[in-house]
Write a structure and sequence with these properties.
Radius of gyration: 16 Å
Number of helices: 7
Distance between the termini: 19 Å
Helix content: 25-40%
Structural class: alpha/beta
Order of helices and strands: EHEEEHEEHEHEHHEH
CATH class: Alpha Beta
Largest sheet: 5 strands, parallel
Shape: globular
Strand content: 15-25%
Number of domains: 1
Amino acid sequence: MTMADLFYVIGASGSGKDSLLSYARERVGAEVNLAFAHRYITRPADAGNENHVALSNLEFASRLSRGLMAMHWQSHGLYYGIGIEIDQWLARGVSVVVNGSRGYLPEAAERYSNLRPVLINVPPAVLEERLVRRGRENPEEIAGRLARAASFGQINHPRLVSLDNSGPLNESGERLLELLHHYPCACNY
């Protein structure tokens, strides 16, 4: 990579973003000029599979009021943020991978001209199976997440790359690693 890119990984809850990001984080080579950002979330640290920084609502609001969030949004009754440290990393020429939000994509694209959205896709039946299996939500919450996933429809961005994650994790994970190593490309994985 000659220029620092901001890889903005998005997809429906349950599409496997956290698993893919974890897979890539554990295998990306030291020679790749890349950093994975943590999300700040008002969710307990032990909830879910995501490697995130847990904040109380008060802590989140305090950081937000002090300008410490590069990006922030609310979803599923929680607050999510990406810290301003990513701006320093990008300024130093380090490409950054973030776990983003489909709903926040327009704001992120407006702020970062170097944004590279990566949409993680799975068929609706696979998404439902994964949400049930992870056991984090009750049936009503699962129905809400499935409805929200369906409501997004087409995601548009000139640099959007779609990655199918309906197969084995190692296959999708290797495709993500290839993308992180060899961007830009005009392809779907």
